Amino acid sequence: MKQSKLSLLLGAAFLMATSAIGPGFLTQTTVFTQTLLASFGFVILMSIILDIGAQMNVWRIIAVSEKRAQDIANMVLPGMGYLVALLIVMGGLAFNIGNVAGAGLGLNVLFGIPAETGALVSAIIAIGIFLVREAGKLMDRFAQIMGFIMIGLTIYVAIVSSPPVGEAVLKTFVPDTIDVLAIVTLVGGTVGGYITFAGGHRLLDAGVKGTAALPEVTKSSTSGIVVVSVMRVVLFLAVLGVVSQGLQLDPANPPASVFQLAAGDVGYKIFGIVIWAAAITSVIGCAYTSVSFIRTFHPALEKSHKWIIIGFIAVSTLVFLVVGRPVKILVLVGALNGLILPITLGIMLIAAYQKKIVGDYKHPVWMTIFGGIVVVSMAIMGIYTLINELPKLMS
């Protein structure tokens, strides 16, 4: 039984982590490191603190209430659950456009085909996987294996690229510049939109719920952030090592060029396999979790949810094929999900103090303050980004 419980906790942590460590994660980290150099360490530090504050609160409240996020929101304010579902699905769609783009970039690396063709082929494969009965278990295990491969490969590249570790540590605490867009994008790409709810809902479905399960829920939620943070730091060092040597990254595919410049053609091809696998996993996980936010609203949605998921993937692919510009999409996606976070987390914090939702449970004051800081800071930075930065990205 203990082994089974541990497996469930790791499953939830990896579901969240592999959702975050997708092509957008790799591209965002590479692009911002290239721009901010060692000062990007400060952005990572801030994002880790905000990530923990958001995820611990959300998972804890879902576990105690024993309800899904949209149902909690509807109890806080009638109709709010539908708004949350709309925001999650819209953000998930944007996120999945980035995932499809990443899959296209992966096949471009491996076979030299256009990113658009690669995206179309990948979408067809993802839809085919959803038609297999046991696809969930298979893809969950595959995602975990690929997660370890990604981290291992990136550690190798970081060592080979010989980054200025001392400077990176210094600038993490004393940065030359503070980039608000980068912070919003990283937090959005790690716990924004549907991502932070994926693991919480997974634990709920697995029966890990109630006040007695809170220590396990906390451990699982922080484990997911630890996995993401390790990958983020290692990739940051790998990119920093390459750009510190004065080498130029390919703007059409920045993370792939990092691996190629550091480890040659072999590294380039292996990276293609990793980013494609990460993208396919994220396409499936994103589509499934996003649709889970609406399938409980009506029996017809529940009955046909598999076809809704397939349609979700198809629409994501079509938008990418029409819009193009995969790198811009991957950077933009995290920012969009960052704008959703203060709304959803704010609802969760209000729910923590409503007896009809959590019963006699007392939410820790320090955790409420922590979560409140995340809500306020992400709201302010999100509005700033919306007004000042997103128009530049879209131009």
UniProtKB/TrEMBL annotation:
The chain crosses the membrane at residues 36-54, 75-97, 109-130, 142-160, 180-204, 225-247, 267-294, 306-323, 329-353, 365-387. It is a multi-pass membrane protein. It comes from the Bacteria. This is Membrane protein. GO terms for cellular component: plasma membrane. InterPro entries: NRAMP_fam. One of its GO terms (molecular function) is manganese ion transmembrane transporter activity. The keyword Nucleotide-binding does not apply. One of its GO terms (biological process) is iron ion transmembrane transport. It comes from Brevibacillus panacihumi W25. It is found in: Membrane. PANTHER family: SOLUTE CARRIER PROTEIN FAMILY 11 MEMBER, TRANSPORTER PROTEIN. Keywords: Membrane, Transmembrane, Transmembrane helix. The keyword S-adenosyl-L-methionine does not apply.
